[in-house]
Fold this protein.
Amino acid sequence: MSALILSGKDVSAVVRAEVAERVASLRERGRSVGLATVLVGDDPASKVYIRNKHRAAETAGMLSFDRHLRATASQEDVEAVVTELNADERVDGIIVQLPLPDGLNGEAAVEMVDPGKDADGLHPFNLGQLVLSRPGPVPATPGGIMRILAHYEIETSGRTAVIVGRSFLVGRPLALLLGQKGIDATVIQAHSRTPDLAGVCLKADILVAAVGRPMMFDERFVKPGATVIDVGISRTDDGLVGDVDFDAVVDVAGAITPVPGGVGPMTIATLLANTVALAEANDN
Ligand code: NAP
């Protein structure tokens, strides 16, 4: 039987509608919500992501502020813009678009963001809050994956989740979220040094592929009935391709996210949800 398609496109529409309602109710009380982005250089993919974020923010009724620096900008230039946005009362959420061009330190730039305006949930303070299971903005892609699982009522408690990838952007925060109390998955974090990766993945009730290698995961990696979350996005001559060989897996898995239209749209929706939550927290 063919797997249930977990549509991030549909779920993100639900999240974005919720965000728009929350923004409207703040606006009724005379409080605007603002999202600012910092882009350095002219990487085409980053420019597309930034454009999409602004469009989504404006559609949700937010103000959006676009700060674009040349590729020749210094670390000080980038950090000065972040400092300025930290002080701007119209700005509730700030995104530093990563990666920064060679020679610049993206992590240091993210650390300059006021943790109370950290729309990406990537500031070390907020990552620490996540480790401590305290509330705060969660990294957008893992947060979006959790929302897909909740929306489709995918059981996590007592299930084994295998996450392939351990980046601070995706794999590691997702492991914390899936393992937290109340979600209660048993989490295995795999990476490039994991022996017998296929054997490990076959243990998964929930398999998350967050590697960045097109079509790496085929039916040999998937236990029948498993939920497969494909985070990977690679640009190929055939367009955007995930880490999962969708056609090979769709008849084995119980549920699967497509690429495109799976995890990708959830990332932007979660950024917006983080931003409105930060605005609500600062509304007094
Ligand atoms: P990353 O920082 O490059 O991390 C990749 C991870 O994959 C690393 O932990 C690496 O292991 C592991 N890995 C690499 N080759 C492997 C192999 N052969 N077997 C097992 N593990 C392997 O990437 P990322 O930022 O997490 O992103 C991963 C993918 O998700 C990319 O395609 C990216 O474009 C995509 N992404 C999508 C969204 C979205 O919105 N859909 C958001 C963010 C990222 P080591 O740690 O051992 O090196």
User: Anything to note?
Assistant: The radius of gyration is 19 Å. The chain has a mean pLDDT of 97.
